[in-house]
């Protein structure tokens, strides 16, 4: 066989792909999404706390937030996942048993929080001081002014960067395979790898790669779309005044027209 | 607009001092505004006018001196509660761009005054009506002209039924053709008996609407009196020079 067709066979063995596909879609894809989305949610909550601590006037909040951010952004993701997955395993054992899956989510969340915290902080700090003054002048406490006026605006401004972080999480979720997941917990990469190992053919891994791209490429377009909307503003929908809660429900709308 | 005024009170600023580091911005300011009166504060840029307004509602705490509403010092009060009694309107409007006009007005009514959604909306719509913007309730601030935005900001402050209103160069950021509408709203409010302190460069407004005009220079009120006295018989040379420049 000539080398070219060997190469072709190695990556584009359709039969090998067809064989891996069902498990890829029914096991790998859901697990990748569960890992990435739950880490994005938990990471965003922690990130918001870090962001608020980071701009606090108290150094006892600012300092720990700074150190946390530096550490978790400074370590390789694989090292953090291994450290947490192994280091906290005895603790996890007592809480939910030997399953490493929650620790994988925790590790991904802790890493994401460091990045998302910085993203949120820069967004919050970009909101003009006049907004805070306007809210305070109405009688809102600092905390209410932040919660109702400053943070919602700040987060809207950095939504593109937040979605980029989600993309990073989808990719980093492949690293939890270190922790030794059971068959039903394997995410896209691990399933591709397992097929590749048993068949000696990389096609299943390539298929996993295509699955990642199917998730991440549309998201990069979402980033661009949000970016454009933030830049140009958009006509307000004749907004059904939200019956109750003010902040999170409006999509990005403010433009820099004035 | 009469409903907004039933509770207005007198305002006294007594010997207020404030320094930003070595920069002594207020150096013993006195200002008395009787209940229902309008005081216009004029003076060169950097003389401390904005800072004075911010010490009245304690966005900045004065280093020394006193601020009294209805004859009682407010420096010991909860500042958030005080600010609900003192409305403030800024040069740049400071509307919340991520909320509709209506929500800008209802937010404090609901969160601070604890009105339910319907009550808050009724109050807000009535207030927007009074500033001529009933039709803009569902717009975003960025869709309005500067003059309309400033009228929303006034409505937002008035919706809380303040006892005193502070205006910091409310028309300085507006295109000339939009100034009149905003000054009209302010003149109506003054006529309706709101106690107001108006920092302005609009000498025509000061002349027609003010009960008192105070000239601030380098952190003190150098001269104060009825508009005729200030504009026709200015005593202090610096005031005369200032008026020569702006009139
Ligand atoms: N937050 C602040 N920090 C430091 N200096 C300030 C601050 N606000 C105002 N100043 C200074 O105080 C002085 C008076 O400012 P301001 O009250 O805005 O004057 P005006 O409104 O009369 O133009 C200026 O020298 C200004 O630089
Ligand atoms: Mg000023």
Automatic annotation (TrEMBL), chain A:
It is found in: Cell membrane. Keywords: Amino-acid transport, Cell membrane, Membrane, Transmembrane, Transmembrane helix, Transport. It is a multi-pass membrane protein. One of its GO terms (cellular component) is ATP-binding cassette (ABC) transporter complex. Residues 235-258 are annotated as: Disordered. It comes from the Bacteria. Residues 29-223 form the ABC transmembrane type-1 domain. Residues 248-258 have a biased composition (Low complexity). The chain crosses the membrane at residues 33-55, 75-95, 101-120, 166-184, 204-226. GO terms for biological process: amino acid transport. Its main location: membrane. One of its GO terms (molecular function) is transmembrane transporter activity. Belongs to the binding-protein-dependent transport system permease family. HisMQ subfamily. This is Amino acid ABC transporter permease.
UniProtKB/TrEMBL annotation, chain B:
Keywords: Amino-acid transport, ATP-binding, Cell membrane, Membrane, Nucleotide-binding, Transport. Residues 11-243 form the ABC transporter domain. This is Peptide ABC transporter ATP-binding protein. Belongs to the ABC transporter superfamily. GO terms for molecular function: ABC-type amino acid transporter activity; ATP binding; ATP hydrolysis activity. InterPro entries: AAA+_ATPase, ABC_ATPase_HisP-typ, ABC_transporter-like_ATP-bd, ABC_transporter-like_CS, MetN_ABC_transporter-like, P-loop_NTPase. It comes from Micromonospora arida. It is a peripheral membrane protein. The keyword Nucleotide-binding applies. It comes from the Bacteria.
């Amino acid at each position: 066989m000539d080398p070219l067709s060997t190469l072709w066979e190695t990556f584009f063995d359709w039969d090998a792909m067809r064989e891996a596909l069902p498990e890829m879609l029914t096991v790998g894809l859901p697990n990748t999404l569960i890992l990435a989305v739950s880490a994005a949610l938990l990471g965003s909550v922690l990130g918001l706390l870090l962001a608020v601590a980071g701009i606090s006037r108290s150094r006892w909040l600012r300092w720990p937030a700074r150190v946390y951010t530096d550490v978790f952004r400074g370590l390789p993701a694989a090292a953090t996942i291994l450290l947490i997955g192994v280091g906290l395993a005895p603790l996890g054992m007592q809480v939910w048993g030997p399953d490493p899956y929650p620790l994988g989510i925790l590790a991904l969340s802790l890493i994401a929080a460091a990045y998302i915290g910085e993203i949120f902080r820069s967004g919050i700090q970009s909101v003009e001081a006049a907004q805070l003054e306007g809210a305070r002048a109405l009688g809102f406490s600092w905390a209410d002014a932040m919660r109702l006026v400053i943070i919602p605006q700040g987060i809207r401004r950095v939504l593109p960067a937040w979605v980029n972080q989600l993309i990073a999480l989808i990719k980093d979720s492949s690293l939890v395979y270190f922790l030794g997941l059971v068959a039903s917990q394997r995410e896209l990469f691990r399933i591709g790898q397992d097929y590749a190992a048993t068949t000696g053919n990389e096609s299943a891994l390539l298929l996993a790669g295509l699955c990642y791209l199917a998730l991440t490429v549309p998201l990069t377009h979402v980033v661009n779309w949000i970016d454009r909307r933030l830049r140009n503003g958009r006509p307000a929908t004749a907004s059904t005044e939200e019956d109750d809660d003010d902040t999170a429900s409006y999509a990005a709308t403010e433009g820099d027209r004035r | 607009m009469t409903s907004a005024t039933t509770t207005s009170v007198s305002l006294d600023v007594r010997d207020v001092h404030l320094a930003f580091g070595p920069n002594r911005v207020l150096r013993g300011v006195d200002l008395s505004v009787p209940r229902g009166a309008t005081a216009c504060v004029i003076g060169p840029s950097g003389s401390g006018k904005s800072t004075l307004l911010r010490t009245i509602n304690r966005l900045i705490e004065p280093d020394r001196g006193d601020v009294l509403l209805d004859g009682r010092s407010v420096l010991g009060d909860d500042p958030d509660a005080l600010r609900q009694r003192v409305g403030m309107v800024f040069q740049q409007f400071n509307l919340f761009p991520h909320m509709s006009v209506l929500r800008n007005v209802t937010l404090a009514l609901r969160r601070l005054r604890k009105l339910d959604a319907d009550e808050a909306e009724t109050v807000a719509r009535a207030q927007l009506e009074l500033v001529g913007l009933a039709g803009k309730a569902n717009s975003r601030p960025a869709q309005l002209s500067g003059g309309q935005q400033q009228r929303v900001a006034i409505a937002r402050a008035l919706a809380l039924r303040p006892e005193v209103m502070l205006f910091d160069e409310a028309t300085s950021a507006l295109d000339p053709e939009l100034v009149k509408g905003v000054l009209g709203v302010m003149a109506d409010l003054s006529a309706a008996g709101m106690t107001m302190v108006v920092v302005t460069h609009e000498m025509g407004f000061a002349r027609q609407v003010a009960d008192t005009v105070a000239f601030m220079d380098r952190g003190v009120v150098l001269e104060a009196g009825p508009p005729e006295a200030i504009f026709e018989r200015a005593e202090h040379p610096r005031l005369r020079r200032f008026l020569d420049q702006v009139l």
